Amino acid sequence: MSIESDNKTEMPMTLSEMIAKSQLGNNVVPITGIANTNIESNGSATTISHIGRELIYKEGPSLVSYATKDVDEKLLVQPSNFNMCADINYLVGNTIERSKAVMEHQKKIIQGEWEELCHNVEKGNIEALRDDIADMLFTVYGMAARLGIPADEDFKLVCDSQYTKFDTCLEDAIKTRDRYLKRGIETYFEIKPNANGEKLWVTYSASDQIDIENKPYPKGKWLKSANFKEPVFKPLEY
Predict the structure, then answer these.
(1) How do residues 26-56 score in pLDDT, each as one tens digit?
(2) How many angstroms separate the CA atoms of 124 and 132, rounded?
């Protein structure tokens, strides 16, 4: 059963107002009555693009809340932190503009929040730091939103890259050890479980030392696996 949108006017909606109304199941039908909105689905995830904004959700209790049938079986989309920040920026007129002027403007805002954070670090005020950290995230996400940068996608690529700093078996951990030995660096590793309970080998610098290229390696520094891969970002669309 498909559900039509309650919004019958051709007025742009904000992400906070955008509720995906569709038939339950893998196939998502087009949203009706919402201007400039596109939906794409691959069966496991659905992307909703709307006037320069994007939401991605997967069916399941973690990202999609199911209302009761007496409210038309609405799928309530839970946006990411970045999408909420982007929505707020677009609501106040801070639309996408890839210019040096926007970069400089957002940089000043970020610098202001950074100075507040540093001030509260000096005071040791952890409660105030909670607000500072959230403000830093908001302003950095704001820069990405203003410049049309897909921050959620890029952040996932960075995290995926960070995970490649760990080795997934003893054989690879030994390769990593040997790689650093060639640079004159003594290491050790510890075996730790990730959030899924999978074993990972984490390599550290064994002491304060300098490699053959005079690069310092402080004791306890977390070192990259020999299999480390840098993130590769998709080109921006213009």
Answers:
(1) 333 333 333 334 444 444 444 444 333 333 3
(2) 13
The domain limits of the chain are 1-79, 89-156, 164-223
Enter the DSSP assignment of 51: T
DSSP string, 188-237: EEEEEE-TTS-EEEEEEESSSEE-TT--EE-TT-EE--TT-----PPPPP
Encode burial over 117-149: b for 16+ CB neighbours within 10 A, e otherwise: beebeeeeeeeebeebeebbebbbbbbbbbbbb
Average pLDDT for the chain: 76
Task: Render pLDDT for 119-158 as a digit per residue (tens, 0 to 9).
Answer: 999 999 999 999 999 999 999 999 999 999 999 999 999 9
Helices 100-123, 126-146: axis angle to 10 degrees equals 170
Instruction: State the pTM of this model.
Output: 0.66
